[in-house]
Amino acid sequence: MEAIKNSLVEGAILWLAQTILESLFISGKLAEWIRQVGLAEAIEKLRTEIERIETVVAAVKGRAAGNKPLARSLARLRELMYDADDLVDELDYFRLQQQVEGGSTACANNECSANNEPEGMDLDVAELSVVGTSDNPNILSTSKKRKNRCTYWDHFSEKRDDKGNISGAICRCCHALIKCGGNTGTNGLKKHLRNGKCLGTRPKGDRPPTATRKRIGTDEALTPHISQHGNLYHWNKTDSCKRIHQIILELQGLRGTVIELLKDSVAPSDQYQSNTSDTRLRTTSLVPQKVYGRDKKDRIIRALTVAESDVVAVLPIVGIAGVGKTALAQLVYNDPKVESQFDRIWVCISYNFDEVRLTRDMLDLFTQGTKEGSPKIQYKHEAISGLGKLQEILEAHMQCHSKRLLLVLDDVWHNLDDCRWRRLLLPLQSSREKEISVAQRIGTEETIKLGALREDDFWSLYKSFALRDDNYEGHPSLNKIGQEIYKKLKGNPLAAETAGKILRERLNIEPWTRILKNEDWKSLQLVGGIMAALKLSYDQLPYNLQQCFLYSTIFPNNYEFRDKDLVRTWISLGFVTCTNSSKKLEEMGHDYLTNLMNLGFFEQVERTKPTRHKTFYVICGIMHDFGRN
């Protein structure tokens, strides 16, 4: 799971950078308040540094996999970005508090600059104004005698040794002794304050701050300088200046470290990406000897052969990774009826829809086996990089062929707009076809959606992989364990193949039982395995969609979500950002859900309730296991 963790860290940093920069947008209300209180110069330096961080992290592109120093630096950088995000959120809170209370910007004339080196200033931290309680007046107060000491210490009494040095801290609430020094032990104190036993001894108002909504899944708390007691907060400008400066310094240091580690990295980023995807099947020649439960092949062939000759028919085959989309397309591509009626081209698009590369690939396939005097001899395309010239050569090839063309675009990750379709398909049409309008020319048939195999088909497929015989009825104990395993594979053919390859190496009860218990088929280390395939799909998601998906997997398998409830939860957790000012957050959240559904992470289920018909959303089969893994 290291690769997934690394991609999450990179995505989190970029998402946080975008969030912070949007919050500090120069014409926004927060930016105006920052100028009024005299923080403009310091915040501008922070904003500039975050933009630089964004540029550097965008260049990482997965190279932290197997590079532990780089992975550690990125993890620390993520925590610093969370600190910066917390700081901006707190400044916005104080802006709103001042607006509600009608306070003035008394600090406006005291400009805070990040060049003032506040960490070297001999300043007493100004006391925070808090509302005390009669039984615990000292909690969350600061003291001028303790310069720069973390306020977690305010929950403890000092314990000193014979020499007068601090040797530990005694909790004021539960009286537990924590061993630490006077200037160390902050992490220990923080962990103790968040411990369930200690929390139970304190009233709610005396409990330490909890994690912010954006730091879900981490063990970090809000910065302790913000104190809350009786619902009152008080802003300390000097402390804010120091925090801004400290964050900038640490960001600069880590940015330099990441840059140096990237220079030392021998593998370029595009090599990493190709390594993660080259294990996928990219050929039309390796057709499975036997296919189970895919009767949609005949439907596709019928749709292709009866379509009008002057229409480009588009037949999308969709489904989650490993469900058999490529295998079904291979069956159609190699069918004798299709071969006799069509000239055929198979192109793998993968992550990057590049018209020049795709046109060159089509030319490479078109010119294979052409006869003397064909356009292959007259036109050489190998050294040509211009799309226009390549398409002229491709059009010349098309004029030499009388059959219709079947073009299979495999491994398509993104929706293609009409303009890009037009540009790609232009040289493949006859002169008469070019006179037809775009709407008439591109006729999209009903989407062919592949889901889980039927139980009997999947059981036969599973046995063919695990036992090398789909009619195996031998060892009853192996059959029983095998049935328990196959139920966990959720009808996914690639999952059956992944598990089967592991099982068939050890055809006895003990290893099969161990594999069932450990669920070995879920390992990301299995080259070409189901989890590696699902990770490729997951890696293509923007970070905010990754967050939405992973959060949803904390619910039980087959949990049925209502769209409004799920979207509102995502919004409350801060996962939904509104990049389009004309759209509401709820609309953006529904767009997120639609994208996740179109990409195979969720599916719609219809339920007829006693009073009305309802639509729910469920995480697709083995995708839930992947998210929980």
From TrEMBL:
Keyword annotations: Leucine-rich repeat, Metal-binding, Nucleotide-binding, Plant defense, Repeat, Zinc, Zinc-finger
A GO MF label: DNA binding
Gene3D superfamilies for the chain: 1.20.5.4130, P-loop containing nucleotide triphosphate hydrolases, Winged helix-like DNA-binding domain superfamily/Winged helix DNA-binding domain
UniProt xrefs under Pfam families: NB-ARC (PF00931), Rx_N (PF18052), WHD_DRP (PF23559)
SMART domains in alphabetical order: ZnF_BED
Any one Gene Ontology BP term: defense response to other organism
Domain spans labelled BED-type: 147-195
PANTHER family xref list: DISEASE RESISTANCE PROTEIN RP, OS04G0620950 PROTEIN
Similarity remark: Belongs to the disease resistance NB-LRR family.
Protein name per its UniProtKB record: BED-type domain-containing protein
